Every structure is written in structure tokens, then in C-alpha cells.
Amino acid sequence: MTMAAAVTVLAASALPAPAHAATNLVVLDWNIAGDTASMEAVAAVIRGSGANIVTVQEIHRKPDADQVKQLADELGWDITANAHFGAGDNPGPCDDPQPGKAGNAILSSFKIVERVTIPLTDFETCPVNRSMAGAKLDLGGGSTITVFTTHLSPGLSATSVARREAQADKVRDYFGSRSQLILTGDFNAPPTDALSKKFVAAGWVDTGAKYANQPTHGDARIDYVYTKGVTTTSGSVLSSTASDHRPVVMKMTR
User: Tell me: the pLDDT tens digits for 99-142?
Assistant: First the structure.
């Protein structure tokens, strides 16, 4: 090898590896009021939004109506590779028993490579229990994104507020200082509540505050897409009558 050739080889080896192309993410979060929801109608809204990551609350898997499978089928996504159902939002011991399971779900056009369901409560009395579903998605090229979704307890009484804040504390404690995260859900608290302010203080970006500061349920904004270490470029609250909540859509890059 000549000296000139050797210099060429060394120079080439010192060049940085090419960066992976950015992946465009369209995240849709929606409390679909699953007891009465039409998965056909819900899927039509999702398709129209262009979402490739979908998080939903109040979705049910009953013996005669597996809404997770129905929604995945409507979207053309494989129930095994592209969906995670986090069961855990089930009636408490003193409620009327119901067949099947209720909870939160994550569906995506990207393959899910890891799944987790985190219980947030273990009520011994009536309130519906609460949980958080999580999934790591393979974006290709060695890139991944981790997405979680939850549905905190409703109510305006002091007991309800304390119950909801305790659940939110568990959510924040679970993540600690980790980044590269998307956290969505029906938090049942407007941005002015202490609960919402604590998420922002902990380093979570409330994407709706900048890109979709509009009501998502009645005249209140209680459905959120929070991020850590992910760039959001635009967003909106969609108009739909398929649920009593309105879907939130955020466009991101990863």
C-alpha cells in the first residue's frame, strides 16, 4: 500500500457514520368511550388523521366484542405484532361484574418489540381500578420510541382529586429521569390543576399547550400528549362525534 493510499484509508475511517434519517410520527390519543363506540367510526377518524401511533382509553375485550382486534383489523394492523392491550381499568369489587376486560391500548403501524402494563391502583372498594400501558416500537434502522398511555380517575371531590394525584405521582415516579418517551391519556385534569403542573415541572412537555390548546371533553382540555426528548412539530384537536372525547393528534420526528 502506498503512503497516499494509507492516508486515504485513514481519512475514510475517521469520517462519522451517516446519521439515520428522521422518522415522522403521527400520534393520535383518544378516549373512545368503548362501551358504546363503533370501531368502524373510530378507525375512520384514525385513518383520516394519518396516525401511525394510536393510544386509546376505555377500550374493551369482551367475549362477544374484542374491540382491540376490531380496531386493529379496521386499521389493517396485525393484532399480535402491532397492538398492546393493557388490561387493568376494571370495575371495583362493589360494582356490577362485567364480562371481559377493560383498559388502555397502543396500536401502531410500527412493530411492537416490548410490552408492559403497570397497575396504578388496587382498590378494595368501588372505584374503577386504573393502570398504564406501555410499548416500545421499532422504527427501523436501530431507532425505537417508547409510548405509554393511561386513564386517571375522574371526579371533583377532595377524595377524587387526591386519588387522581396519587395515580399521577406513581406515573411520574415510574419514569424517573428517563427520556425519549411519549406519554398520553385522559388525565381528567385541566392544565391549571396542580396535577398537570407537576408533569411540566418534572420535565414533561405538554404538547397541547403549544399546538392544540383546545377543549377535548366538553369545554375542558383533559386529554394530553406529553413528551420527553421527542420533537413535536404540529398538532390539533379533531372534531368527532364517535366519542364524548375529541381525539388529539401530534406530529413528531424521531
Answer: 779 999 999 999 999 999 999 998 877 788 999 999 999 999 99
> What mean pLDDT do residues 49-54 have?
98
The DSSP secondary-structure symbol of 19 reads P
CA 157 – CA 185 distance, rounded (Å): 21
Own/partner pairs for 232-241, CB < 8 Å, 24+ apart? 232/205, 232/207, 235/207, 235/208, 235/210, 235/211, 236/211, 236/212, 237/208, 237/212, 238/45, 238/49, 240/45
DSSP code at position 80: T
Half-sphere exposure of 181 (CA within 13 A, CB side): 20
Which pTM value belongs to this model? Answer: 0.90
Measured in Å, how far apart are the chain's first and last C-alpha atoms?
42
Task: Identify the DSSP state of 94.
Answer: T
Phi/psi of residue 175, nearest 5 degrees: -85, -30
